[in-house]
Specification:
- The chain is of the alpha/beta class.
- It has a domain of about 70 residues: Ribosomal Protein L15, Chain: K, domain 2.
- About 20% of the residues lie in helices and about 10% in strands.
- The protein contains 5 helices and 6 strands.
- Strands 1-3-5 form a 3-stranded parallel β-sheet. Strands 2-4-6 form a 3-stranded parallel β-sheet.
- It is elongated, with a radius of gyration of 34 Å.
- About 10% of the residues are buried.
């Protein structure tokens, strides 16, 4: 096999359509662009936000500063479970987000997220409830029934920027280092 023998796979290279090369070709004269108008001209593309002279949507909306105009990347969405939903569990069991999913109280996707227990309803059995957050009334009702509350720690990201005063020493630290030398 030589370099000159190499050919592209059949059908992979389609031949370019030559327009504007006489009326016998079927695409002569106006070359498939129609008659006159902005779209028939060279470089006659219309901006995708152009609305035919009407003020475009991006100009009609209020100007809002900020990252994407929302707090979605920083928002914590909690799946809500009420105390009366915990009646499904047997006394003495440990209620975790996975147990809530298997009991059908939330979807698998919500079970992987953050869970908050609210105090609507009553609970009359001792349960060990593990969740990311509890309302004060839910905590009181679970503990009054003889159960315990365990908070699942959420991941806290360290700050990447250094504080301006981080590398500087306090006046007391400067005095101690000056005395030792």
């Amino acid at each position: 096999m030589k370099l000159s023998d190499l050919r592209p796979a059949p059908g992979s290279h389609k031949r370019e359509r030559r327009v504007g090369r006489g009326h016998g070709s079927g695409r002569g004269k106006t070359a498939g662009r129609g008659t006159k108008g902005q779209k028939a001209r060279t470089g006659g593309t219309i901006h995708r936000a152009f609305s035919g002279g009407q003020t475009r949507l991006s100009k009609r909306l209020p100007f809002l500063r900020g990252l994407g105009n929302s707090n979605i990347p920083f928002r914590h969405d909690y799946s809500i479970v009420n105390v009366n939903d915990l009646e499904l569990f047997e006394p003495g069991t440990q209620v975790t987000p996975d147990a809530l999913v298997t009991a059908g109280l939330m979807t698998k996707a919500k079970g992987r997220g953050l869970v908050k227990i609210l105090g609507e309803g009553e609970v009359n059995r001792a349960l060990t409830v593990r969740a990311h957050k509890f309302s004060a009334s839910a905590r009181a009702k679970i503990e009054a029934a003889g159960g315990t509350v365990e908070i699942i720690p959420t991941k806290v990201h360290e700050k990447t920027k250094r504080r301006k005063d981080e590398g500087k020493k306090t006046p007391e630290q400067r005095d101690i280092t000056s005395r030792s030398t």
